[in-house]
Amino acid sequence: MKLRITSSKQSNYKMGEHSGVDYEDLRGEHPILDNFPKVSLVPLVFLIFYEVSGGPFGVEDSVKAAGPLLALLGFLIFPFIWSIPEALITAEMGTMFPENGGYVVWVSSALGPYWGFQQGWMKWLSGVIDNALYPVLFLDYMKSAIPAFGGGVPRVIAVIIIIVGLTYMNYRGLTIVGWVAVLLGVFSLLPFLVMGFIAIPKLQPSRWFVVNLEHVDWGLYLNTLFWNLNYWDSISTLAGEVHNPKKTLPKALFYALLLVILGYFFPLLVGTGAIELQQEMWSDGYFSDVAKLIAGVWLSYWVQGASAFSNMGMFLAEMSSDSYQLLGMADRGMLPEFFSKRSHYGTPLMGIVFSATGVILLSWMSFQEIVAAENFLYCLGMILEFVAFIRMRIKYPNALRPYRIPLGTVGSILMCIPPTLLICVVLALASLKVMVISLVAVVIGLVMQPCLLFVDKRRWLRFSISTDLPDLQHMEDEYARF
Questions:
Q1: How far apart are alpha carbons 330 and 385 in whole angstroms?
Q2: Which of 37, 74, 170, 328 registers the highest number of CB atoms within 10 A of its CB?
């Protein structure tokens, strides 16, 4: 394997101190890439917003499963169990390794390249499966206006056109995707702000406290919360495209966390407090009915349009994350070198092509199968991330971390226990079919990595390492002097 390793500058600063100089690219100088603009704070916030949420569309089932009180409490309490720990780990590890590949780099640093590859395979496949959902949901929202999109050849053609069109947008540049995400985010959230002001005279606070613990569908309730509040780590795979990531990434995660929680809680607060409860009616798409009851047909149409185009924003963000992950893996020699090639717009050409192809191939799956399969693989990947995070804290406690979670090693372990227990619950709730399909996918990854090493050894494809992991042991020794 040909090595193209460059040295990175070492800094003589105590833990938690900054030199005031932006992060040096661990790959050295890249004058060609320097010509392309980096993602700034506002677009990054909305990219994270669409990686995780996209708006309150899909949270309605929490009311159906558990009633208003538990639904509202869930979106206030659950972030402390899952979202905040995942976002904090992403901030610390993402600024420690500010390069494309994200969690693949973290796991490789802590557990070795074999497990880094498994992390990359599971999370990429999970992301592609998840992304196959959004064109389908977009057409589900649009078929009421255009019945031909309900099935058959017109639906297949429409799915392909949507995927190709959004893929081309990713090809044109990440900054374009980021600002499109900002526009779509404003368009998706604004109708709920309008609905909230109109609903003020109709609010009855007593409706928020309705609960019947004997009739709670805990499986649906937990899956709804989990599906709507995960994927905070996805933004790490394109950290190398972020302007000054050591400062921008933690800020963006914080603002996105507030935006996501408010984007869920406020519409639920308005919807459950302004109209009489019909719990069985609260299912996917019910917010358009809520808007109609509160303000009229015009707001209902706006909510439907916002729901449809929110799926487009989620597709764009997920496609960016998946494609830059493949580029980052190629930079580290885990994938053939052609995955590291960029278009003249600076975008990962082959990563986009492979991710789009996977979406097209998986778009035939049903909604339930898509959600269950991607959740299972995602959970397995998160276990590796938690292990990598704790191992890095133990093995390199003094290594430079531009953002450091204000917890010691024991506190870090304790922080990871609740989300790990939640992962066990989600895995246990999976059906036998989903378990079998997901485990087959895992086995493919376990076999694929040695096969790629064999291909590299025989020189059937070209592999190269264009970046090197920081010399953490050297960093540890340097900081130990102070």
A1: 20
A2: 328
Tokens describing residue 128: 């592609």
Torsion over CA: 217, 143, 190, 260 (sign):
positive
Q: Would you say 89 and 310 are in contact if contact means Cβ atoms under 8 Å apart?
A: no
Q: At 465, phi and psi to the nearest 5?
A: -110, 110
The secondary structure of residue 100, as a DSSP letter, is B
Residue found under tokens 């947008």: 169
Q: What are the φ and ψ backbone dihedral angles of 358, each rounded to 5 degrees?
A: -60, -40
- The CA distance from 54 to 230, in Å, is 12
The span from the CA of 150 to the CA of 136, in Å, is 10
Closest by Cα among 173, 289, 280 to 217: 280
**DSSP E strand boundaries for 30-136:** none
CA dist., res. 425 & res. 419, Å (int) = 10
Cα distance between the two ends of the chain:
38
Which pair of tokens denotes residue 253?
């995660």
Token couple for 225: 């919360």
Secondary structure class of 83 (helix, strand, coil): helix
Q: Is the pLDDT of residue 271 over 70?
A: yes
Nearest in space to 444 (alpha carbons), one of 128, 122, 114: 122
Length of the chain, in residues? 482
CB 205 within 8 A of CB 333: no
What does the H/E/C string look like for 149-204?
A: HHCHHHHHHHHHHHHHHHHHHHHHCHHHHHHHHHHHHHHHHHHHHHHHHHHHHHCC
- The arithmetic mean of pLDDT across residues 25-35, rounded, is 43
pTM for the full predicted model = 0.86
Q: What is the model's pLDDT at position 34? A: 53
- Give strand pairing partners of 188: none
